[in-house]
Amino acid sequence: MTASAIHLPWPLRGLVDAAAADLLGGEGAPAVDFSKPLGEPALAAPDSVSWRVFKNPVSLFVGGVGAVILELAEPRVRSGVWDHTRFRDDPRPRLQRTGLAAMVTVYGPRGAAEAMIAGVGRMHGRVAGVTPAGQAYRADDPELLDWVQATAAFGFLEAYKAFVAEVSDADQDRFYAEAAPAARLYGAVGAPTSRARMAALMAAMRDRLEPSPIVFDFLDILRRAPVLPAPLRPLQGLMARAAVEITPAWARTLLGLGAGWGLKGWERRLLRLAGAAADRVVLDSSPAVQACRRLGLPGDYLYGIDRAGTGTHPETVEINPRRRGVSACPLPSIPKCSSLPRL
Predict the structure, then answer these.
(1) How far apart are CA 208 and CA 299, in angstroms?
(2) How confident is the model at residue 13 (pLDDT cuts 50, 70, 90)?
(3) What SS3 class is residue 106?
(4) pLDDT for 6
(5) Helix, strand and coil percent figures for the chain, each rounded to 5
(6) What pTM did the predictor assign?
(7) Which residue has the higher pLDDT, 54 or 285?
């Protein structure tokens, strides 16, 4: 089945665009223009699985939270995140920077992406400490970088599969393999490049993970923090529980995340509807849309995707009783980027 791209009418489109841009914007940070320079490629290609997966805000939020849950289960990563960031006090800017860093990595012009990643590497080089159990750590430890990269890829892919669309086994392997060039730039030289290698890493790390009340603190912060626009804020708790649900069952048991942290049937169906809809709505503020235009592709290039994962260009749907077809839209202001690392 092929889905059709949806172009919202004004003023609804402007309101949604502004809210979406605000989720990624951070005041005082250097600007990254995803629409320029014209023709400059990204680290991943437009026909990649990565470009398809990362454009969806529902699965990005759910997958990002799921990744952090797994990261916080590793004691050295947990101390690095919890002791060297202000997430506990002011989570929204951190989440904005984290989301935008992912967007730059996937959709940004290669030069901007490489510069941002180099900045992350320099920051990692300054982060070191000792866990409460006395274990020394450094943020630039390749083993830890591999785990952070792996959990991020796992979270985003599993969330997309659970709440947006099916992904074939071959495309899942492609997704992991596509992340390798950026992972190496981040210093994650051993990050998994296939489902099999992801499973092997999970098995190898299993005995090194441990429960911690910080995991519950993190989830509680996500439920309370004003991250989403006010009308959507009640969904934050639901999406946090969706993130718990996409983590492996053995990890949930290890961390003490029981059945109460899962979704009810109607909640799961609601999120799937939201994820499927978000996969079709074309927003001018989206880094994915702007990156497509930078490379001379239609803005809705990624939004006509069949459920088997093949990019197509079906009929475009514009929700406007007075007009038909695709409307021309001016580019909005470009969101801003920080060179701070991901959670």
Answers:
(1) 44
(2) confident
(3) helix
(4) 86
(5) 55, 5, 40
(6) 0.86
(7) 54
Q: Following CA atoms 184, 246, 72, 63 in sequence, which dihedral angle do they give, to the nearest 10 degrees?
A: 50
For residues 245 and 51, what is the distance between their CA atoms, to the nearest angstrom? Answer: 24
Q: Which pLDDT value is given to residue 85?
A: 82
Q: Which residues contact 291 (CB under 8 A, 6 or more apart)?
A: 34, 35, 42, 46, 51, 107, 108
Cα torsion 34, 36, 40, 46 to 10°: value is: 40
Q: How many residues does the chain have?
A: 343
Tell the residue number behind the tokens 């006395």, with chain if given: 134
Look at residue 213 and tell me whether its pLDDT is greater than 90.
Answer: yes
Residue whose tokens read 């599993």: 158
**What whole-number distance in Å separates Cα of residue 66 and Cα of residue 243?**
4
Asked if residues 142 and 150 have their Cβ atoms less than 8 Å apart, the reply is no
Tokens of 76: 């050295």
Tens-digit pLDDT profile for residues 227-264: 887 777 888 889 999 999 999 999 999 999 999 999 99
Give CA–CA dist 310/2, Å, rounded.
9
CA distances 238 to 185, 213, 220, 262, Å, are 34, 20, 12, 9
